[in-house]
Amino acid sequence: MSLTSLPLVEISGAPRERGRQYGEQARERIERALTYYAEAFAHSSGLSWEQVVERATRWVEPSRAFAPELVEEMEGIAEGAGVGFLDVLALNARGEIIYDTTFSSMEPDGCTSFALMSEASGDGHVYAGQNWDWRDGVRGTLMVLRVVQPGKPTVIMHVEAGQVGRQGANSAGIALNANGLGGRFDDAVGVPQTLIRRRVLDSDNLNSALEALTKSRAHIASNALVTHREGFAIDLETTPGAVGWMYPTDGQLVHGNHYQAFVPAQLAATYRPTSTDSLFRVPRAEGGLRTVRQSSGTDEARKRIRAAMSDHLGYPESLCTHPDETQPAVKRWATLLSSCVDLTTGDYLIAAGTPCDHEYERVPWNLYDGPHGEVTP
To answer: In the chain, what are the domain boundaries?
Structure first.
């Protein structure tokens, strides 16, 4: 199965078996991911991939202590793809490796995330989504993954091949959209974001999802926008120290790649946003998404969401980001895809590229074709 240019991969069963299925189906894309990151880290730090993998060993024990079942899944991915376990771990900890003090700096993920409650959507539905901005060179590694796992909600995610978590939603009606914030505060080794995000999406109730973010000791700072189908959203700016939070205003919540709820004490005296364009992407998304409440029905609401996320102020580093041809190919950024999940109907929509020239397509799995979580009586 495929969604335009994105393969659809479905896995099920126990953790290691799920991983083997994943690795076998995504073998080619995992190899592309390894090739790209070998080049990217060599360009930014001068280190070989073997040296990168050697440094990835520091995340083995924190990962196993936090989510042993996901480490098993990664071991299965490695077996199915015919690569080393540490190769797969490095793909899952690539954001953490970027901020390791032994490496030169690479920029954090971009992204502009949104949540629309029923009063802001025009059709009375609850929506969650984002533009996922990252290196254009990983475009050929992207895939949509459906995870059927005994005793837990079914999860649909869009990920880089080899990763066990990133952004998505589950059959309990919980959506997660995430944004890089950049940086770390000390030399302590924390949990990789891919595992924390998967733990959120494995949750069958809102409290468990939020505890995955507030009770874990992350290695780096990252933003998480959590939306629930019953019309609730909260944005958590998580750091290795404190956590900040914010709620929707007039039924709408948008977050980019700078601190919007608070600035951690460790950064306050010298804080500067890592992504300058985030300072205008956020208000532009807010303005465009405010028009969605004027929609007369679901088709129009989704068209207005796509139009809002296609904004080009500041082009090419705009809300809808396009590669800057003046930059080396390995450093070019782009909106890799735009997602829009209708938590009311269970439709999971993806524009497989920049939303300005890619329509939202519905993934052929409904979000609620799986175990449901809490339902208010």
So the answer is: 13-99, 111-366
Cα(153)–Cα(91) distance, integer angstroms? 24
190, 219 Cβ separation under 8 angstroms: yes
Residue 357 burial class via C-beta count within 10 angstroms: exposed 0-12, middle 13-18, buried 19 and up: exposed
128-166 confidence digits (pLDDT tens): 999 999 999 999 999 999 999 989 999 999 999 999 999
Please, are residues 317 and 131 in contact by the beta-carbon 8 Å criterion?
no
Give the global pTM. Answer: 0.94
Kindly state the tokens that stand for 213: 């973010």
Residue 5 has pLDDT above 90, yes or no: no
Contact 19/72 with Cβ under 8 angstroms? yes
CATH number belonging to the domain at 111-366, selected among 3.90.420.10, 3.40.50.150, 3.60.60.10, 3.90.1150.10: 3.60.60.10
- Class of 13-99 in CATH: mainly alpha
DSSP for 274-286, written as a single string:
S-TTHHHHHHHHH
Tell me: the pLDDT tens digits for 233-263? 999 999 988 999 999 999 999 999 999 999 9
Going by C-beta distance under 8 Å and a sequence separation of 6 or more, which residues neighbour residue 56?
A: 86, 89, 90, 93, 97
What stretch of H or E contains 210? helix 206-214
